[in-house]
Design goal:
alpha/beta, 2 domains, 3-stranded antiparallel β-sheet, 10 strands, about 45% helix, D-Maltodextrin-Binding Protein, domain 2, about 450 residues, about 10% strand, globular
């Protein structure tokens, strides 16, 4: 006899009779047949194209994709009876470019690059969102109008980048010492088709913290030369911090280690490294959970400044390419507080939706709540990831240049000249601004 949730079962009244085993078996068989039939009907309807469907492309794969499906896609499908044909890819930009060229783009896309989205908007591939999304829920920092006055994207989740992670048992003095030892920085440059972007984050943040948001924005919109003293200084500071072109073993480790795997070095005995300059999403890695990872503002450790002058941020941005009824419903849903809250609960990313307030409880509240508040603080300056805001060709060349520079620091002058030449190419789409304060 099995136990009830509240304890042992009481004896059944004598007037009640157990169903026979034959009846139980019959009901079980019928139920199983109905379940199989229902599944077959769903598959058949989809195969015949009779179930409403919306196509969605994003960069979440593996565990992230599983969490996204469970937290966001499946509730949408249940509520609206619309199938989401989801494709996740680590080479999302390349996949989207090929689909657009072939004339088969997805209905909805989630990209990290506003610069890339601005180019698609200029080419009339994106549709304005003002009639679908209350952009005031996000503010100009995250749902910024382009020169034509239209808003073409909004954030599904956001991340803070101007931070450094360290194990929970490492004190402030130890962090200060580790920052001056290249071997103590956890650096992994690998990321498949987008390898090199961790290096761009370093250079961007160093420039932002040393010279402030005004100069940072000039550079991010193409108005400051890559060969300027300030930009060159940011590259050299990164070189000195991580040993670019110096210790061959450190360089080899950085060049051959994926960015998502380098965190494991904080859990080895002895530790392989102590500090990681990485966005807030990295806290979701098992290694940082095991090390009880904490974060510090980046400026004191990167440039010796007492506090951050501004905060570099990034976001996964939702955009619309086809205005089908199903796609419009998905856009509205992804912009809703419910969807944003659900996805934020499954990841280390954060929603900046006005109706999704930072949680105050849970075992991670000590690092999550201050981080979330920093992202939403209207008195703080938030600047979008500069390379993500640049035209795709410049963004990709920047990432490749960080890899070359890490391997051979004597190439810096040539690399910066090449980036200047590319940035002056006619026909590139540059965002008018990348820095703003967030609303209440």
């Amino acid at each position: 006899m099995s136990a009830h949730p509240g304890g042992p079962a009481t004896a059944a009244p004598g007037t009640r009779r157990r169903p026979s085993r034959r009846l139980v078996r019959t009901v079980t068989v019928v139920a199983s047949c109905l379940a199989v039939l229902a599944a077959a009907v769903v598959v058949g309807v989809r195969a015949l194209g009779q179930e409403p469907t919306v196509t969605l492309l994003a960069n979440w794969t593996q565990d992230d994709e599983t969490n996204f499906r469970k937290a966001v896609i499946e509730p949408f499908e249940r509520k609206y009876h619309i199938h989401v044909d989801y494709q996740g890819s680590n080479a999302e930009s390349q996949v989207l470019g090929a689909d657009v060229e072939a004339g088969t783009p997805p209905d909805v896309v989630v990209l990290t690059g506003p610069g890339e989205l601005a180019e698609y908007a200029r080419q009339k591939y994106l549709l304005p969102l003002e009639d679908l999304v209350d952009t005031g829920d996000f503010g100009d920092s995250w749902a910024k109008p382009l020169a034509d006055g239209h808003v073409y994207w909004f954030p599904l989740k956001t991340d803070l980048k101007s931070i450094v992670w360290y194990p929970g048992d490492v004190g402030e003095q130890q962090r200060g010492q580790a920052a001056h030892e290249p071997a103590q920085w956890c650096v992994g440059m690998g990321s498949g088709a987008t390898s090199g972007w961790p290096g761009t984050d370093w250079i961007e943040d160093i420039l932002l913290q040393r010279y402030g948001p005004k100069l940072y924005e000039q550079w991010a919109r193409g108005d400051l030369s890559w060969q300027s003293k300030q930009v060159k200084d940011a590259w050299k500071t990164w070189r000195d911090l991580v040993g670019a072109g110096g210790d061959p073993a450190l360089v080899r480790r950085a060049l051959t280690t994926p960015f998502g795997a380098v965190s494991r070095l904080v859990t080895t005995e002895p530790r392989g490294c102590t500090l990681e300059h990485q966005a807030s999403f990295i806290r979701g890695q098992n290694a940082w959970r095991q090390a009880r990872g904490r974060w510090s503002p980046s400026a004191p450790l990167l440039v010796g400044a007492p506090a951050n002058r501004a905060w570099e941020v990034s976001a996964d941005l939702v955009a619309l390419l086809h205005t089908t009824p199903e796609a419009r419903k998905l856009i509205r849903y992804l912009a809703s507080a419910d969807a944003q809250r659900a996805w934020g609960a499954e990841t280390s990313g954060f929603s900046v939706h006005a109706d999704v307030q930072p949680g105050s409880g849970g075992p991670d509240a000590d690092w999550r709540v201050p981080l979330a508040r920093t992202l939403r603080d209207k008195n703080e300056v938030h600047c979008f990831d500069a390379s993500d805001a640049m035209p795709p060709a410049v963004r990709d060349a920047f990432a490749e240049a960080t890899i070359e520079f890490l391997a051979d620091r004597d190439h810096l002058e040539a690399l910066l000249r090449s980036l200047d030449t590319l940035s002056r190419t006619s026909g590139l789409t540059w965002l008018p601004s990348v820095c703003a304060r967030t609303p209440d």
